[in-house]
Amino acid sequence: MTYKFRAWDHLLKQWICVGYAAIGETTLFGLVEAYLEENRQGATSMLERLGDVEETMWSGVIDKNGIDLYAGDKVKWTRKVREVFTGTWKWQTDEGVIVWRERGFWVDKEGFGWEGEDLWNWDEIEYSGNIFEHDKI
Q1: Mind listing the pLDDT tens digit for each residue in 85-109?
Q2: Considering Cα of 94, then 97, then 102, then 103, what sign does the dihedral take?
Q3: Residue ranges of the domains in the chain?
């Protein structure tokens, strides 16, 4: 797997280092440091701005439209769900956020994974925004 990263500047509300792959001596932190030196926004040093930048890692998943999915990205998918009282099946569209948990990436969604639900498949997942630019799900 290729390890790709991007970083969000909370102060300027923009992405930096998008799709950066950490290779050799060059590190994501080195690129962020250089960016902050050029974009201090009144700070006396880049260290004062370091807390304004949040790095995210590529999940290794590409959505059905060819978009790389990173931690913090909002995704949606359609799945078949069984009605508890009637026992009938229906199609339902759900949304969640890609998060890193312990040893891997997951989709964080309230109420997901109850018995009787068909789990969606990664091939059908679709990008629908991210928590940085669009903070409401």
Answers
A1: 999 999 888 888 888 887 788 888 7
A2: positive
A3: 1-59, 63-137
Nearest-5° Cα angle at 61, 36 to 77: 110
How far apart CA 45 and CA 116 sit, in angstroms, is 55
Task: Tell me the two tokens of residue 3.
Answer: 């390890």
Amino acid 12 reads L
Summarize pLDDT for 42-75 with one digit per residue, the tens. Answer: 888 777 888 898 989 898 889 999 999 999 999 9
pTM for this entry: 0.78
Long-range contacts, 8-17 (Cβ 8 Å, 24+): 8/53, 8/54, 8/56, 8/72, 8/132, 9/35, 9/39, 9/52, 9/53, 10/52, 10/53, 10/54, 10/132, 11/41, 11/49, 11/52, 12/39, 12/41, 12/52, 13/133, 15/132, 16/53
